[in-house]
Write a structure and sequence with these properties.
With 419 residues, the protein is α+β, with helices and mostly antiparallel strands. It has 4 domains: 69 residues; 94 residues, Beta-Lactamase (2-Layer Sandwich); 69 residues, Helix Hairpins (Orthogonal Bundle), CATH 1.10.287.130; 167 residues, Histidine kinase-like ATPase, C-terminal domain (Heat Shock Protein 90, 2-Layer Sandwich), CATH 3.30.565. The strands form 4 sheets. It has a 5-stranded antiparallel beta sheet, with helices on both faces. Strands 9-11-12-14-13 form a 5-stranded mixed beta sheet, with helices on one face. Strands 3-4 form a two-stranded antiparallel sheet. The longest helix has 49 residues.
């Protein structure tokens, strides 16, 4: 008892000890040392966690920035713009809002694009279909050529995705090929119809000739009609061949200087016998000394057809005049008759294949209805045009208008003549 009291008395003031003799300060010190050892890894862990979160936040923000930039950007993938600029056909690149971000010159020429948008709803519909399905598509469409009139153009359109955002639309103008196909179908149908008449007539005449073999007079009559129909068939065949040749791409590949006076002289000579037999005078003016670039044979054929038509539709007796004028680098060859004339409603159709102003007269004289169509194609191949004035009962005037060859021209041009 006295020993314990003496121990407490000898201890430093304020120093408390445990039952084993360890002071409270030592306990606290030990706890602090132990907590410090745990805090270091804990702090490192917390630091790594916070740093990782910050990095993730920065990366996410950068990704969102890139996505936003892509949405706003109007640039197309590398090389696409150069390809569109080089395209002869129409090409358009559209963004997710269907705004046109790039278009080729052909797209502007065809009127597909206006103020950075697709003009035609049918094209917008094709683009939307590709966005929904993700599959490429190709379709033929007809669209209006412009805001006025009812003319249309025929396009073959291909639409495909261009990356993840853009859509590429390519359009090829097939208007001319569609027109030519329609012309070909009509031409074949017209030929089939027109050839039936002389072929059928020859067949019937041959059958009649067989039954009339004992009657020399009937034999001569039927033989004469067969000869007429065969000549008509041969003429039609020749004109069909000529018209097909004129429609070829290289119909006038090697033009030369042509003397207009020689063309008129040759065409008049070809029609002189027929005109005289019908008491029709062919009157040509003085020498013009004009020259044009072209093919003399073609030009003679065209003028021959005009004179032959004038003779065919003129009363007897009458006259047909052929005159030449030149002005503003254009040579005009006019053929004027005093015939039955052409109704105003038929003026736009006289150059159609197989069209005849007077069906009965054409049948009687063996006309094929191809002569004026040949005239039109010859003149077009020479870079000119043909015009007609007519009044029923007073006659008609057909005028060939051709580019005038310069007086000093002496070499053949490298391409087709053009005004």
């Amino acid at each position: 008892m006295n020993g314990k009291w003496l121990e407490r008395e000898l201890s430093p003031p304020g120093a408390l000890r445990t039952r084993r003799g360890i002071s409270a300060a030592e306990v606290v010190s030990n706890l602090v040392l132990m907590d410090s050892a745990l805090l270091v890894p804990l702090a490192l862990f917390l630091g790594a966690l916070i740093g990782g979160g910050a990095v993730a936040t920065v990366v996410a923000a950068a990704r969102r920035g890139r996505v936003a930039a892509e949405v706003v950007s109007t640039s197309v993938p590398d090389g696409v713009a150069q390809v569109l600029d080089a395209l002869g056909s129409a090409g358009v690149v559209l963004d997710p809002s269907n705004n046109v971000v790039k278009s080729s010159p052909g797209a502007i020429t065809l009127g597909l694009v206006w103020q950075q948008t697709l003009v035609h709803s049918v094209l917008v519909g094709l683009v939307d279909r590709v966005r929904r399905s993700g599959d490429d598509l190709t379709e033929n469409v007809d669209i209006a050529r412009g805001p006025l009139g009812d003319a249309s153009i025929h396009l073959t359109v291909r639409v495909a995705r261009l990356g993840t955002r853009f859509v590429l639309l390519l359009a090829e103008d097939r208007t001319e090929s569609v027109r030519l196909e329609a012309v070909r179908r009509d031409f074949v149908a017209n030929i089939s119809h027109e050839l039936k008449t002389p072929i059928g007539a020859i067949g019937l005449l041959a059958e009649a000739l067989e039954h009339a073999s004992d009657d020399p007079e009937q034999v001569r009559r039927f033989a004469k009609r067969m000869s007429k129909e065969s000549r008509r068939l041969a003429t039609m065949t020749q004109e069909i061949i000529e018209l097909s040749r004129l429609q070829a791409a290289d119909a006038l590949s090697h033009p030369e200087i042509v003397d207009v006076d020689q063309v008129i002289s040759a065409a008049v000579d070809q029609n002189r016998v027929t005109a005289e037999s019908n008491r029709i005078a062919l009157v040509s003016g003085a020498a013009s000394r004009e020259r044009v670039w072209g093919d003399e044979t073609m030009l003679v054929t065209a003028l021959h057809n005009l004179i032959a038509n004038a003779v065919q539709y003129s009363p007897s007796p009458s006259r047909v005049g052929i005159g030449v004028t030149a002005h503003d680098d254009v040579v005009e060859i006019a053929v004027t008759d005093q015939g039955i004339g052409i109704a105003e409603d038929d003026l736009d159709r006289v150059f159609e294949r197989f069209f005849r102003v007077d069906q009965a007269r054409a049948r009687a004289t063996g006309g094929t209805g191809l002569g004026l169509s040949i005239v039109k194609h010859v003149v077009q191949n020479h870079g000119g045009d043909v015009r007609v004035w007519s009044q029923p009962g007073r006659g008609s005037t057909f005028t060939l208008r051709l580019p005038r060859a310069a007086a000093e021209s002496s070499s053949t041009p490298s391409s087709k003549a053009r005004p």
